[in-house]
Amino acid sequence: MNKINIRFIIALNRLNKRGETSLGCRITYLKIRRQLSTGLFINPKHWNSKKQKVLAEAENYEYTNTQLSLIKTKINQAFLMLQIQATDFTVEDIYALYKGEKLTTEYNVIEYFERYLNKLKRLIGVEIKQITWNKSYYVKNNIKSFIKWKFNCSIEILIVFSILTESFVVF
Q1: Which tens digits make up the pLDDT trace of 37-60?
Q2: CA distance 122 to 142
Q3: How confident is the model at residue 155 (pLDDT cuts 50, 70, 90)?
Q4: Under a CB-based contact definition with an 8 Å cutoff, are residues 98 and 74 in contact?
Q5: Are strands 104-108 and 158-162 parallel, antiparallel or unpaired?
Q6: Cβ(171)–Cβ(108) under 8 Å?
Q7: Are 104 and 171 in contact (CB under 8 A)?
Q8: E strand or H helix at 39, and its extent?
Q9: Distant-in-sequence, close-in-space partners of 16: CB < 8 Å, separation ≥ 6
Q10: In DSSP terms, which residues pair with 15 in a beta bridge?
Q11: Which residues contact residue 153 at a Cβ distance below 8 angstroms, ignoring those fewer than 6 apart?
């Protein structure tokens, strides 16, 4: 089971006029990092990097620590949502879901058609007949041959398929 690592970091080399530095967040998943800004600023002397908290000596330490806790919780929630979907995902997907963006997965035409055929296969004998599935299978093979002939490539055309809205765009 892969796990996510969320760390808050300060940029000591970037102090503003008040002597405060920005507090950033680093998400690490599958050894790939993604940094984001928290929008918070603190005095570097008041930061405990081991505890990942602002010390009680700071003015707004309760507010800042609460905000950090909320950010970490929201990132973990995005991570858990992606785990529940049981599909492969990256640190960029975690970040996108944290920011509230819709996730898109890219499939080439044949991959998309094969996913469709797998869904149809479960409906044989319930809603469709085997002959209907066979026709769809032949269509997939014809599309594969056509793409190879027309574009002289091995199925490089992509369909961007949105998991959340079930709509797609061909480009």
Answers
A1: 999 999 999 999 899 999 988 888
A2: 22
A3: low
A4: yes
A5: antiparallel
A6: no
A7: no
A8: strand 32-42
A9: 41
A10: 21
A11: 147
pLDDT score for 35: 94
How far is residue 105's CA from residue 88's CA, in Å, rounded to a whole number?
10
Q: Which residues of 88-127 are buried (b: 16+ CB within 10 A; e: fewer)?
A: ebebebbbbbbeeeebebeeebbebbeeeeeeeeeeeeee
One-letter identity of residue 95: Y
Helix (H) or strand (E) holding 66: helix 61-84
Mean pLDDT across the stretch 5-13?
Answer: 91
Residue 157 clears pLDDT 70, i.e. is over it: no
**Model pTM above 0.85:** no
| Length of the chain, in residues | 171
SS3 state of residue 18: coil
Contact 100, 74 (CB under 8 A): no
Judge residue 8's burial from the number of C-beta atoms within 10 Å of its C-beta, 0-12 exposed, 13-18 middle, 19 or more buried.
Answer: buried
- In tens, the pLDDT along 95-110 reads 988 998 766 666 677 7
Taking alpha carbons only, the member of 101, 75, 45 closest to residue 67 is 75
Q: Which residues fall within 8 angstroms of residue 103, CB to CB, at 6 or more apart? A: 89, 93, 96, 97, 162, 163, 164
Q: Which amino acid makes up residue 155? A: I
Average pLDDT of the chain, as a whole number: 83
